[in-house]
Amino acid sequence: VSQSRYSTQNESANSIQERILLINMAIDDFLKHPIIGVGTGNSSGGVGYPHNSIIEVAAELGLIGATIFLLLQATVIVTAYRTIQRVRGTPDEWVMSTALAIYIFAFVESQFSGYMGGDMLLYVSIGLVAVVSQLLGPRPELERA
Question: What are phi and psi of 64, to 5 degrees?
Fold first, then answer.
């Protein structure tokens, strides 16, 4: 049995301490390389990931990457909102509302356990919002009536 590097014997406390350490390391990486970051897979000294998509993107891709990442998130929300407004009161409203709810869940979850390279739920939910928006887009045959 290997000795834990932390003073507690509680495994969940060890996990929390490790995540806090990895977050702090990623923040330090960002502060040392704020413009372009330390490179993909190198945050937290390359020994782990901070379990927070925004912090990880900022550390690995700097302000440039973090800005693009946050603009993507804003675009998803605006697209979903505009689609919901366009189809409000129709049976299609629940489809985009559901897609938006899945995206919001995935984004919030990525702030606590996300890994930029493997956060498939977040990436799939972004695609889901985009596809649903296209499917529920303006239909000329309905607008003529």
Answer: -60, -50
pLDDT tens digits, residue range 56-99? 999 999 999 999 999 999 999 999 999 999 999 999 999 999 99
pTM: 0.82
- DSSP characters over 100-115: HHHHHHHHHHHHHH--
- R_g of the chain computed on alpha carbons: 20
State whether residue 2 is helix, strand or coil.
coil
Q: What is the 3-state secondary structure (H, E, C) of 28-93?
A: HHHHHCCCCCCCCCCHHHHCCCCCCHHHHHHHHHHHHHHHHHHHHHHHHHHHHHHHHHHHCCCCCH
Query: Is residue 10 classed as helix, strand or coil in its secondary structure?
Result: coil
Residue 20 corresponds to which tokens in the numbers above?
């806090």
